[in-house]
Amino acid sequence: MNRRKGAELTSGVGALVLGLGLGVRFSRWFAPAAGLMTVIGLCMHAFGMWDLHRLDARDQVQSPPWTAALYWLCWISLAAVIAVLLVRR
């Protein structure tokens, strides 16, 4: 893993943990907007994932084979989250 990828991973995980901590800390305030925030986060993540995949394909970045499996596993997981959100409605 190159230094850029490591920095991106560290930053992303840090943002995740920060958001989780803030959500727990202020759960009473954020509870009414939880569904909307989930949908916004899901859309932002999906766009970022799609855009990175597109940029890697354009730049012909050679990724390890397991990254393709993780890419599609993530899309399947996002579809499952959407299904759960729709069923709970």
Question: What would you say about this model in short?
Answer:
The protein has 89 residues and is mostly helical. 85% of the residues lie in helices and 0% in strands.
Description:
By secondary structure, the protein is mostly helical. It has one domain (3-88). The chain is built from 4 helices and no strands. It has helices spanning 3-25, 27-30, 34-58, 65-88. Helix 3 packs antiparallel against helix 4 (65-88). The longest helix has 25 residues, at 34-58. 0% of the residues are buried.
Written as H for each helix and E for each strand, in order along the chain, the element string is HHHH
Please tell me what the overall shape is. globular
Domains, number: 1
Oligomer: single chain
Ends distance: 41 Å
What labels describe this entry?
89 residues, mainly alpha, 85% helix
Task: Give me the secondary-structure topology.
Layout lengths: L2 H23 L1 H4 L3 H25 L6 H24 L1
Helix pairs in contact: 3-4
